[in-house]
Automatic annotation (TrEMBL):
<feature type="region of interest" description="Disordered">
    <location>
        <begin position="1"/>
        <end position="24"/>
    </location>
</feature>
<protein>
    <submittedName>
        <fullName>XRE family transcriptional regulator</fullName>
    </submittedName>
</protein>
<dbReference type="InterPro" id="IPR035992">
    <property type="entry name" value="Ricin_B-like_lectins"/>
</dbReference>
<dbReference type="Pfam" id="PF13560">
    <property type="entry name" value="HTH_31"/>
</dbReference>
<feature type="region of interest" description="Disordered">
    <location>
        <begin position="102"/>
        <end position="123"/>
    </location>
</feature>
<feature type="compositionally biased region" description="Polar residues">
    <location>
        <begin position="1"/>
        <end position="11"/>
    </location>
</feature>
């Protein structure tokens, strides 16, 4: 079935297919690829599902796509229909899902194998952030090992972005209305990238945001999801842990740090960030302000070292609150891959 991208007048390529998916994680990655191919936001998918009389809250879509377990059939049906697929295409997705389900052992414990339970008011019950709560010893080398074994190209299908975005959801940044892949750099040290790191004080022992050499920041991949004018959700995409949304920690030993959490929700103010031009016009410099507090992201103690933690603090205009946002092409399929 020929599909068109949102905001485009030209037919796009055929929709991604799940035929090569053989594990729950690969099937979940295929669903994420399909969502990116449509050019639809979570809210738009919710509206399109409602047109088919399918209940599909945006928060459920975000959480389910962030998991690496197999979603329920009802989610697959509602989601693929909302993506605009024909009934024949929907049937093919279901067949692959059923094939994987018959080959996969039943989930145990709190892994979860479906979209979250939906309450009577349509709001999904909260999910925990266990997949991203990894000890510091697992960072770095483990991420590189995942790239070697799974391959970034097995996580995404490399669908190219339109050459001209239909709108500018962030002032001064030519980001797509559906969101864009990006790298975020400290302006004073553009060889560094904001990525996965650890709290060097040892008080908070799970993954947090830090600056590291971009050559070491292979994973996670960063995706900026527009939530409103000049406001985004900063997502981390990982082939093992799924999607984690950067969340400002308000209390406890990790207070003011940023942690990736898999309970992504458009209405969680701790996961909303305002992107503002910073410095002279047309310099592509920005400061990033958590909506929940109105403060500014900066580097702990204005540190310039590799591994310095990103924290929120008083907006001072200091150099460590100046960031470059580099929009990048979607991850590409390796040459020769079928």
């Amino acid at each position: 079935m020929s599909q068109r991208r949102a905001g485009s007048t030209e037919p796009s390529a055929e929709p991604p297919q799940p035929a090569h998916a053989s594990t729950p994680a690969e099937f979940a990655a295929a669903l994420r690829t399909l969502r990116l191919w449509t050019g639809l936001t979570y809210r738009q998918l919710e509206d399109k599902a409602a047109a088919h009389t399918d209940p599909l809250p945006a928060s459920t879509v975000a959480t389910t796509l962030g998991r690496t377990t197999l979603p329920r059939e009802r989610f697959v049906v509602a989601f693929t229909r909302a993506c605009g697929l024909s009934e024949e295409d929907v049937r093919q997705w279901l067949e692959v899902r059923r094939r994987i389900a018959t080959e996969e052992p039943a989930p145990t414990g709190d892994e979860g194998g479906d979209d979250r339970d939906v309450s009577t008011n349509g709001v999904s019950a909260p999910a925990h952030a266990s997949r991203w709560r990894q000890a510091a010893a697992l960072l770095g080398a483990a991420s590189i090992a995942v790239v070697g074994t799974l391959g970034v190209d097995s996580f995404f299908n490399g669908t190219p972005a339109p050459a001209t975005p239909p709108s500018l959801p962030v002032t001064g940044l030519r980001m797509l209305a559906v969101g864009s892949w990006a790298r975020i750099h400290p302006a004073r040290a553009p060889e560094l990238c904001l990525t996965e790191g650890r709290d060097r004080t040892g008080r908070y022992r799970t993954a947090v945001t830090a600056q590291r050499l971009c050559t070491k920041a292979v994973l996670p991949l960063v995706f900026l999801e527009p939530l409103g004018k000049d406001t985004v959700q900063i997502q981390w995409h990982h082939p093992k842990y799924g999607i984690g949304c950067l969340t400002v920690l308000m209390k406890g030993p990790g207070r003011d740090l940023l942690e990736p959490r898999d309970d992504c929700a458009d209405d969680n103010r701790a996961q909303q960030f305002r992107i503002e031009p910073f410095g002279p016009p047309a310099t592509a410099h920005f400061r990033i302000r958590p909506v929940a507090t109105g403060r500014c992201l900066s580097l702990r103690d204005q540190d310039t070292k590799d591994g310095s933690e990103v924290v929120q603090g008083r907006c001072s205009g200091a150099a460590d609150q100046d960031f470059l946002i580099e929009l990048i092409s979607p991850p590409q399929v390796a040459a020769g891959r079928t």
